[in-house]
Amino acid sequence: MDLSLNDETLEDFHPSFSLNFEEQTGHHVHVIERDLTEPHRIVGEYLQPGGYLKLIELGLEDCVEEIDAQQIYGYALFNNGQSTRLSYPLEKYGSHVAGRSFHNGRFVQKMREKAASLPNVRMEEGTVTSLLEVKEVVKGVVYKSKAGEELQAFAPLTIVCDGCFSNLRRYLCSSKVEVPSSFVGLVLENCKLPFPNHGHVILADPSPILFYPISSTEVRCLVDVPGQKMPSIANGKMSNYLKTSVAPQIPTELHDAFIAAVDKGKIKTMPNRSMPANPLPTPGALLMGDAFNMRHPLTGGGMTVALSDIVVLQNLLAPLHDFHDASSLSKYLESFYTLRKPVASTINTLAGALYKVFSSSLEAGRNEMRQACFDYLRLGGTCSTGPVALLSGLNPRPLSLIVHFFAVAVFGVGRLMLPFPSPKRLLIGARLIASACDIIFPIIRAEGVRQMFFPAMIPAYYRRVPS
């Protein structure tokens, strides 16, 4: 039996699925990769603690070893000259459990090496061009080998995970991709972060700036640039923008290293894409990773969602022995889309909401919401650990997310009413609540209200293993 997979951008990390699946079931896995050389990317570098726990569950935690990965224990948040540290709630876990940040390519290569070491996994360099369909059932893929020869690979189940630029998703989901912004990436060398072993988020104008270590000597900087038009790198406008508009807003400890990185000229960009999961169940095929579901990468939750999805799918496929009844298998796998929701929808919703809250705005209510969120997190206790537990994937509970989100809004309104509720303050408070609703409700609607909050109401939730 052959289980065929394709991935053209390894952000989806399907080798972790092929590894564990092969070991537990003995099925054959054919992995077709566009390029097996080490990738150099500015995303897929941050793994939340919840994602690390999924690596442990898959038996793959050693893939973050020997790549100079850095342990991450929380976030530092900066706003208008003030800062606060938010720690991950890791007290009930072992000392090795934390977030991890690293060079994406090093991690990808470790995963590939481990997959290729298994006797039933075949890794091949090639580019998948289309799905093979017979009577609306996917039977495999058409691909071009490294030598340019057009070949076919047949399998009872084809898992498509060809990344954010997928050319196959149109066959397997109803996709509506949004590009709210782009990241401009730099590497700062030999500098110390204000809060070691923490991710740093600067609430800058017009949108956030991120810093986190990716090795013992390097710090990744990601500058969010809203909209789809960016200053040109080629004519020097990007360098000028970074020096004049961005540099004055970053912590003084990082300023000189930031300018040096800009002068070095190794500036990379990446569009930030958002796409809710909207599958079209298709017998013989399943869509995963960024080809299937994307969120703004501000919170670094993409790998956690992908690894969580792999665990869900692995558990669903583990008891199966025969994949050849494509219709029954497709109906059974519909439960995947519901079972993945607690983790995926929590991280997706939080990513979209925080990006909008943390970006500056001309609206008084939106800016008040940003300040309220910063001050709410500084309160400590559950006001800090609750949101951070959601962000880290340690507590993927959509209802808890909604409670904290509107607690921030109520907290913001309460502050406006002190020392007394003037008409102007009442108006700003009303706008704050309206802004909160405008931010969160469209995201929840896109994720699916029933799937997020009432998954047991979805018939596929109870789908039984095909006999």
What's a quick, concise take on this entry?
With 467 residues, the chain is of the alpha/beta class. It has helices at residues 15-25, 49-57, 104-116, 237-246, 252-264, 302-317, 326-339, 341-358, 364-378, 382-391, 398-416, 423-447, 449-453; strands at residues 2-7, 28-33, 46-47, 70-72, 74-79, 82-87, 99-101, 121-134, 137-145, 150-154, 157-160, 178-189, 199-202, 209-213, 218-226, 268-274, 285-287. The strands form three sheets. Strands 10-9-8-2-1-11-17 form a seven-stranded mixed sheet.
Q: In words, what does this structure look like?
A:
- With 467 residues, the chain is of the alpha/beta class.
- The chain has a 7-stranded mixed sheet. A 7-stranded mixed sheet has the order 6-5-13-14-15-12-16, sandwiched between helices. The chain has a 3-stranded antiparallel sheet with strand order 3-7-4.
- Helix 1 runs parallel beside helix 6, helix 2 runs parallel beside helix 6 and helix 9 packs across helix 11.
- The chain is globular, with a radius of gyration of 23 Å.
List the helices and strands and how they pair.
Blueprint: E1 2-7, H1 15-25, E2 28-33, E3 46-47, H2 49-57, E4 70-72, E5 74-79, E6 82-87, E7 99-101, H3 104-116, E8 121-134, E9 137-145, E10 150-154, E11 157-160, E12 178-189, E13 199-202, E14 209-213, E15 218-226, H4 237-246, H5 252-264, E16 268-274, E17 285-287, H6 302-317, H7 326-339, H8 341-358, H9 364-378, H10 382-391, H11 398-416, H12 423-447, H13 449-453
Parallel strand pairs: 1-2, 1-11, 2-8, 5-13, 11-17
Antiparallel strand pairs: 3-7, 4-7, 5-6, 8-9, 9-10, 12-15, 12-16, 13-14, 14-15
Helix pairs in contact: 1-3, 1-6, 2-6, 8-12, 9-11, 9-12, 11-12
